[in-house]
């Protein structure tokens, strides 16, 4: 199964992705985590990405797409994957579709974790990651509305919405429910 998780920053995608990944035995591929490990290891890609993460801007598509395609081509991703934080622009979605078409594979579901902006700001301030200052959070939310939300139209045929306001376990149950509904309705 190939699943995309989308939603605003702070919606809890990463937490849910980890639970889904162990339940479904699929690798959890998070672009945020990939960038943070490149930065920690001091790679070239990490150096290029760092200023964008620090500012709450998207890393340029050519850097991001190359990194993800390389990760998706790894052996452990051939049977399926959970993509968390990618695609985040329509150009990234188009590039992903090209990759999938070459491999003759398809995405099964896009889970959209929906939650109000005000609710996520509080969550992220509590989380205290380096890029979780109020200004950077606001910037990330703006970028999300401008660049990432248009993907909901792009993926309308595969989209299932998950209410991401609540307790972690509750949201997980909703995600599993949404996923089985979506998979059951696949022709
Ligand atoms: P959050 O969901 O809280 O925004 P992430 O870990 O998903 O956190 O992303 C952190 C940062 O990594 C983003 O603000 C952005 O700079 C960069 N990033 C992650 N995914 C992408 C992507 N698909 N395209 C461009 N930049 C990305």
From TrEMBL:
Class of the enzyme per the UniProt entry, highest EC level: transferase
Keywords associated with the record: ATP-binding, Cytoplasm, Kinase, Nucleotide biosynthesis, Nucleotide-binding, Transferase
GO biological process: AMP salvage
Catalysed reaction equations from the record: AMP + ATP = 2 ADP
GO CC, alphabetical: cytoplasm
The enzyme's E.C. designation: 2.7.4.3
Subunit architecture: Monomer.
Name this protein carries in UniProt: Adenylate kinase
């Amino acid at each position: 199964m190939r699943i995309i998780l989308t939603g605003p920053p702070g919606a809890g995608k990463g937490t849910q992705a980890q639970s889904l990944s162990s339940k479904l035995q699929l690798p959890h591929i998070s672009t945020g985590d990939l960038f943070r490990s490149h930065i920690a290891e001091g790679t070239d890609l990490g150096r290029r990405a760092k200023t964008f993460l620090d500012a709450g801007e998207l890393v340029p598509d050519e850097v991001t797409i190359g990194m993800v395609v390389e990760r998706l081509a790894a052996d452990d991703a051939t049977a399926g994957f959970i993509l968390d934080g990618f695609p985040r622009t329509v150009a990234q979605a188009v590039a992903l579709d090209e990759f999938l078409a070459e491999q003759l594979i398809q995405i099964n579901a896009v889970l959209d974790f929906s939650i109000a902006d005000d609710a996520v700001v509080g969550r992220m301030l509590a989380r205290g990651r380096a890029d979780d200052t109020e200004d950077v959070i606001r910037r990330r939310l703006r970028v999300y509305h401008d660049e990432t939300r248009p993907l909901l139209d792009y993926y309308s045929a595969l989209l299932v919405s998950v209410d991401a306001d609540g307790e972690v376990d509750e949201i997980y149950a909703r995600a599993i429910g949404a996923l089985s509904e979506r998979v059951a309705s696949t022709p």
